[in-house]
Amino acid sequence: MEGNGETSNYVSGGNKQKPLPDRTLSIIIKALNEQDKIEAAVISALAATRGIDAEVILADSLSTDRTVEIAARYPITIVQLMNAMDRSCGIGPQLGFQFSRGAYVYLMDGDMELDPEFIQHALACLEDRPDVAGVGGIVEEKNVANLVFQLRQNSTIAHMRAGEVDRLNMGGLYRRAALEGVGYFSNRNLHSFEELELALRLQGKGWRLLRLPLVAIKHYGHAVPLLRLLRLRFRSNYVQGPGEFLRSALGKPYLLRVIKEFRVFLGVIAGWLLLLVCLLVAPYSLLSLAAVTALIIIIAVAMILRKKSISLGLYSIVDWNVFAMGTLRGFMRKQTRPDDIIHSRVVHEASLQNAEMTGLSLRAAKR
User: Fold this and answer.
1) φ and ψ at residue 111, rounded to 5 degrees
2) Considering only CA atoms, which of 164, 170, 168 is closest in space to residue 148?
3) Cystine design at 90: which of 64, 149, 194, 262 (Cβ 3.0–4.6 Å)?
4) pTM of the prediction?
């Protein structure tokens, strides 16, 4: 149907057998309230599919702004959650994957722009390297007003640099056969760290992940102060991701790897317990109080020296404590089977009648 803001009567459910892929490529854009950036994201995805048998799918987590209305101007498929309570970082990719038909699947966010040349290089890499499950590229951070994105832009994080990596944060192109071989694309229970969870499942089956030395996307993240960004992550339950991941990893062969990943947050929780014991055992002991105070000062100084910045060092300590609280909450949260069908609906279907908009999209992408 055309993009008129209405919804079709199709609602996903049950355990239908998915047909075999009949397209080369599916580009999945996951989004929630990205009305200012979604048009550029869709245009860039359409431009990247020129000359390829491809589809573009917007997986929308029940946006309350004009995200869907704007995206529906273009020849793409738009699918949407039925229940806002299902929102999570992990559910968007799986929702899009549920409707996709491509032998290769590219994942991006609604605040990103895909480089039109990258897809061709990534497809060639996967064709040439049968042991590689996924390929990413270099991320250009366009909003570097806050220090979190400055760090990512400066490539201080190992898995954001070119070469073999242990996860594909910020999107990538995946081999569908590899995704189906590990049960599902993205764990719907996770509010963060879903890329690492996927990577561990793939690596457990012997697959490799690569990041090419080519720009893949431009990312227009939240241009907000650090503490406000942290508050947004708390309110959206993003900070629950480590605990949710730990719970999902219980009994899995990669549990120790997950514990190592979140050792800082777990260490903070252990520190809280130690402090509680000190207060209970010796509530009036000046020695206990002095020891705890000295430990806090040592940690703060160490982080300032490590980050080479007072603001980043102190922010890191606040960040650890907020994520530690989220870890506890996330671990206690009940989980759904990650491969269950996601209840959703198609709100817009790609149509040849949108050919005029396709031409508009591609002309805009060239500018």
Assistant:
1) -110, 25
2) 170
3) 194
4) 0.85
Strand partners, 58: 29, 78
Please report, as a single letter, which amino acid is at residue 183: G
Closest to 199 (Cα-Cα) out of 139, 141, 249, 263: 249
- Copy the structure tokens of residue 196: 């690492």
pLDDT tens per residue across all 367 residues of the chain: 334 433 333 334 433 445 556 789 999 999 999 999 999 999 999 999 999 999 999 999 999 999 999 999 999 999 999 999 999 999 999 999 999 999 999 999 999 999 989 999 999 999 999 999 999 999 998 876 655 555 555 456 889 899 999 999 999 999 999 999 999 999 999 999 999 999 999 999 999 999 999 999 999 877 677 778 888 889 999 999 999 999 999 999 999 999 999 999 999 999 888 878 877 776 666 676 677 777 778 888 888 887 777 877 888 888 999 999 999 999 999 999 999 999 999 999 986 444 444 444 444 444 4
